[in-house]
């Protein structure tokens, strides 16, 4: 089954702005899990299911922290 990875970029009223690679898409929050937060990684399945990927969010957060540490090294 096909699936697409999206990341919650921000919220605008009743919409979640989701980043799919280089494309941003507005998705009604009512179509998403109630527990979503900024930066969450979501998998969108062709059958309409949406799942939060906690492990992928943690991996991306660690990767960003490491990049920021490198940037601020003397």
Chart the SSEs and their pairings.
Elements lengths: L2 E10 L2 E6 L2 E6 L12 E5 L4 E3 L1 H19 L2
Antiparallel strand pairs: 1-2, 1-4, 2-3, 4-5
- Total number of beta strands: 5
Quickly give the structural class: alpha+beta
Unreliable stretches covering 5 or more consecutive residues:
none
Structure annotation, total helices: 1
Shape: globular
Helical content stands at 25-40%
Strand numbers in spatial order across the main sheet: 3-2-1-4-5
Separation of termini? 47 Å
Task: Give the strand content.
Answer: 35-45%
**Averaged pLDDT:** 91
What is the H/E string? EEEEEH
Main sheet summary: 5 strands, antiparallel
Query: What's the Cα radius of gyration?
Result: 14 Å
Descriptors for this entry?
74 residues, alpha+beta, five-stranded antiparallel β-sheet, 5 strands, globular
Q: What report would you give on this structure?
A:
- The chain has one helix at residues 54-72, and strands spanning 3-12, 15-20, 23-28, 41-45, 50-52.
- With 74 residues, the protein is an alpha+beta fold.
- The chain has a five-stranded antiparallel β-sheet.
- The protein is globular and about 45 Å long.
- The model has no long low-confidence stretch (mean pLDDT 91).
Summarize it.
The protein is α+β, with helices and mostly antiparallel strands and 74 residues long. It has one helix at residues 54-72; strands spanning 3-12, 15-20, 23-28, 41-45, 50-52.
């Amino acid at each position: 089954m096909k699936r697409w990875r999206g990341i919650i970029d921000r919220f605008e009223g009743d919409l979640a702005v989701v980043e799919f690679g280089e494309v941003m898409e507005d998705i009604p929050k009512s179509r998403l899990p109630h527990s979503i937060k900024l930066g969450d990684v979501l998998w969108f399945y062709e059958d309409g299911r949406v799942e939060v990927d906690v492990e992928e969010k943690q991996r991306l957060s660690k990767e960003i922290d490491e990049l920021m540490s490198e940037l601020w090294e003397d």
